[in-house]
Amino acid sequence: MPSITKHKCGFVGAGSRQCSQEALAHGYCFWHDPNSDKSGIDIKTPLEKYVRNGEVSQGLQLKRARLEQLDLVNRGASSGFDLRGSDLYRASLRGAHLFSIDLSNSSLMKADLSGANLHCANLKQCNLLGTKLKGTRLDNVNIGKQLLQEKRGHKLWKAGHKQEAFDNFQQAEEVYRDLHKAADSQGLFEMAGYCLHKELTMRRYQMPKPSLKRAISKGIDLFCGYGERPFNVVLFAMLFILVCAVAYFLLGITHQGQLLMFTPETLGMEDVNSALACLYFSVVTFTTLGYGDIAPVGLSRFIAAFEAFTGSFTIALFVVVFVKKMTR
């Protein structure tokens, strides 16, 4: 009787390691076959056994799988299990234990992670669109510098596909909003602030370019990072004070009846002293102290009025932003 040759799964994982499981009709094993329906059956325990036995765990095809209370914590190891490139579209992972798991380049689109533990998980370039994160533990989760949709949006924009780019930026905004809300509800205010800033940045990318609305949004980002970067306010204040000081130096101010301004004919210590006086006057004007020992003349008066108004607004904004960050 002729022997039946069994073929191995055609999936090749990290390090060119081929899956050792028996191939099904489509050339892949049950775990790597995208055509294998895993909905409606209990595969939680078999999956835990498969991964813990050291089988190739990248690229798992788990669409719509029921994986409630799944336990994939790699106890006693310095890193979690490697499930990179896996497809968990609409999978139910309610209450799953996924500490330090690597799900980079995977899809968790519309997956239910309510109450799951993703502490220290690697989610770089993971599709998180529509993922349910109610009660999900997100401490020290790594989402990378750019979401999958955000990175894709920038590439499409450079290629001239503006509408497709806008769609991806809109999806990225939604994902950042979900992460922001989830982190905020758990007291992870640093992550919540970062995601809020990225959410508003994605919203700006959807605005027509050029447009006044987009320019105003960009200005607010540079000025205070949408309320999340108080250090930006300090940098703006220092730069604005310096610019106004240069303007006073060129246009002139008076001190005890003496005009202080730039004079090319008498370059030297006199001009240095005038420049320092202008810087001092700029600081006093910006902070609205108004000692009165130095007064603006000519066009300098309009600059002083504008600087005083801007200074009072900037200081008030800094207090609000700083207190907001510190109370977190």
From TrEMBL:
<keyword id="KW-1133">Transmembrane helix</keyword>
<dbReference type="InterPro" id="IPR051082">
    <property type="entry name" value="Pentapeptide-BTB/POZ_domain"/>
</dbReference>
<feature type="transmembrane region" description="Helical">
    <location>
        <begin position="231"/>
        <end position="251"/>
    </location>
</feature>
<feature type="transmembrane region" description="Helical">
    <location>
        <begin position="272"/>
        <end position="291"/>
    </location>
</feature>
<feature type="transmembrane region" description="Helical">
    <location>
        <begin position="303"/>
        <end position="323"/>
    </location>
</feature>
<keyword id="KW-0812">Transmembrane</keyword>
<protein>
    <submittedName>
        <fullName>Pentapeptide repeat-containing protein</fullName>
    </submittedName>
</protein>
<dbReference type="InterPro" id="IPR001646">
    <property type="entry name" value="5peptide_repeat"/>
</dbReference>
<dbReference type="InterPro" id="IPR013099">
    <property type="entry name" value="K_chnl_dom"/>
</dbReference>
<feature type="domain" description="Potassium channel">
    <location>
        <begin position="240"/>
        <end position="327"/>
    </location>
</feature>
<dbReference type="Pfam" id="PF00805">
    <property type="entry name" value="Pentapeptide"/>
</dbReference>
<keyword id="KW-0472">Membrane</keyword>
<dbReference type="Pfam" id="PF07885">
    <property type="entry name" value="Ion_trans_2"/>
</dbReference>
